[in-house]
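[Q] Does anyone have a clean structure-token version of this?
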Amino acid sequence: MSTEKRVALVTGGGRGIGRGIAEGLAEDGFHVAVVDRDEATAAEVAKALQDRGLAASHHVVDVTDGAGVRAVVAEIETTAGPVHVLVNNAGFDEHLPFVQTDEEFWGRILDVNFTSALRFVRAVLPGMTERGRGRIVNIGSDAGRVGSSLEAVYSGAKGGIIAFTKTIAREAARAGVTANTVCPGPTRTPALESAMNQQESADAVMKAMVRAVPMRRLGEPADIAAAVRFFASDGAAYVTGQTLSVSGGLTMA
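[A] Here you go.
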């Protein structure tokens, strides 16, 4: 699939892993639609890419708003062109024992981490199918593969992303659309740093996290972006329904 004059939509593209993905896809020649609920960060990423001579635009939406999602996809396709690559990266979590959570909390976690991906896939998949080509890359988590303490609902949501992606891959394969999941392990992002700052023994927790990774370092957004860039590339045209961990060897099953 040639990347010339094609559009990649990245949700949660204003910071962290999403920003790394936006930068990588822009470098690969896509017009990147940086989608985020925070207009300032989305605009900053798009401008930084434009200043490098790369194609980008920023778009604001709350991924839990179905009408808003449909409207932002229509806006992108009107102003930039058909979406050929969709990256569902937007995510949210709070670390709590499951018995300290309630249904309101479950709903928020599921809506951002699972249902939002359904909304965006529903909005772009008919066009991809009609054109006979497309790439869907959903950002899961190793928590969705092996579980993670204090992240029960988040882990369930990301496990759902993996199963959902495989099903879309089966349904869309004959139309030339691929769907794959990238599962980051511990990755150095503003969200991780914020979570660590809330820990009483942040340094010890961080060191333990690094020791658990066979490569003895945390991931960087560019590491995750590299996997997304592969799934979005011409070389991945025959790869669909796959789940790839990018975790420095932390997860090998």
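[Q] Thanks! Anything notable?
[A] The beta strands are 7-11, 31-36, 56-60, 83-88, 134-139, 177-184, 243-246.
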